[in-house]
Amino acid sequence: MRKIFTPNSLSLAVVFAAGGLAASGNALAIEAASMDLGGVQFTPTLEVSERYDDNFREVGSDEDSSWITSISPTFVLAAKDRVNLYSLTYSLNSETYHDSRNDDNVDHHLDLDSHMEFSSRSRLDLNAGYDRIEQTADTEIDGVNDKFHTYNIGGVYGYGAKSATMQLDFGANHEWKRYDNKGSLNDDQERDTTSLSATAYYRVAPKTRALAEVRYSDYDYVLSSSTLDSDSTAYLLGVTWDATAKTSGTAKFGWSTKEFDDSSKGDADQSMWEVGVTWAPRTYSSFTLETRRGLEEGSEGAENYIDTTSTSVNWNHKWSSFVSSDLNYAFINEDYENEREDETNRVGAGLTYELRRWMSVGVGYQYKDVDSNVSGESYDRNQYQVTLTMGL
Predict the structure, then answer these.
(1) pLDDT digits (tens, 9 = 90+) for 333-371
(2) Are 227 and 264 in contact (CB under 8 A)?
């Protein structure tokens, strides 16, 4: 998953909301070997999966089901210069829908990352990325896939030694999102997003730091007729800790505002939070709790914004040196500004068996249920999957 440097980039906040079968995220992972290409390490991996999806369009009636074959190779070029790290990652995901061949698609992902340390007190992380994606689920028009691509460039500059009492982080990111659908479908969702953030950390214990954070995002929609252009600001206080009494995590609480350029639209302000805690009572077993509340972008002519609250719980257990399991549950409440409300429950389970250092096989199941107060928007979805992952 891409590391995008945005003011709301607490990675735990959106991972579980994105979905995915549990079998793909177990603690047991292959140890892929790398090839040395003159000081640059080249690491290829391949994931092949077969899954059955009984409602891949996520609709309440006339569901489409299919067996789906996915082939996902990933190629990483990485170089290290003392403490500085550089990497180029390319991956694609080719999906074949055996009962709906018009939905066959290939997604592409390209990332360039660097981590540079100029001194013990000064460091910089940079990321540039490109994604080209086709979606069959949750589309604007039933039966018509959404195609879009995004570009982003961003970074985080950190000042202060890791052992110092005070540390500062300054982040910036710019993302371009464009649709590739036929006609003008979803052109009103094309936008440029500029994000800035500043975070101050204060060490209150050897492994615990208090924090104060300010974020700002500017949403600029491409269509001149759009009324969704807005500025969002968030103010957060919290704490982050590492390996304290077998737990680690980050908790942030605060207030967010959203102001629209169009004076006819009502502005929004509300409380927000982002919490992620991992408890590892044993080295081979861990529990993770993640919860957040925030404002998501709306759509032209429907709602100005979506008040989203999400919570997930995950248990990962390593039964032996080659077998691990993963169980997870997620709940998402989406309160649309136009009085629509959706509640999503998602349950997943997975089991991974490591055949070799460089090869593993996994099985997974996921159930998703959406209950909406809008007619026709409620549905459920079952996915069953077998995955083979290989490296060198």
Answers:
(1) 999 988 899 999 999 999 999 999 999 999 999 999 999
(2) yes
Q: Encode pLDDT of 264-312 as tens digits.
A: 898 999 999 999 999 999 999 999 999 999 999 988 768 899 999 999 9
Contact 77, 41 (CB under 8 A): yes
In the chain, which stretches have pLDDT less than 70?
1-28, 301
CA distances from 199 to 143, 156, 344 (A): 44, 10, 32
**Cβ neighbours around 35 below 10 Å, total:** 10
For residue 91 the two structure tokens come to: 């991956």
Q: Distance between CA 70 and CA 66 in Å, rounded?
A: 12
317: nearest Cα among 358, 346, 286, 357: 286
Does residue 334 contact residue 311 with C-beta atoms inside 8 Å? no
Q: Is the dihedral of CA 21, 25, 26, 32 positive or negative?
A: positive
Number of CB atoms found within 10 A of residue 214's CB: 15
List the domains of the chain with CATH numbers.
12-390 (2.40.160)
pTM for this model (two decimals): 0.90
Provide the strand spans (E) within the chain.
35-36, 41-53, 66-81, 84-97, 105-119, 122-135, 146-159, 166-179, 191-205, 208-221, 230-244, 247-260, 268-282, 285-299, 303-318, 323-336, 341-356, 359-372, 379-390
Token reading at 283: 């080295």
Choose among 214, 217, 168: nearest CA to 191.
Answer: 217
Which backbone phi and psi does 16 adopt, to 5 degrees?
-70, -25
Both tokens assigned to 202: 């204060």
Rounded-to-integer distance, Cα 55 and Cα 368, Å: 10
Rounded Cα gap, residues 309 and 327, in angstroms: 21
How distant, in Å, are the alpha carbons of 28, 38, 327, 330, 357 from that of 322? 7, 33, 17, 27, 9
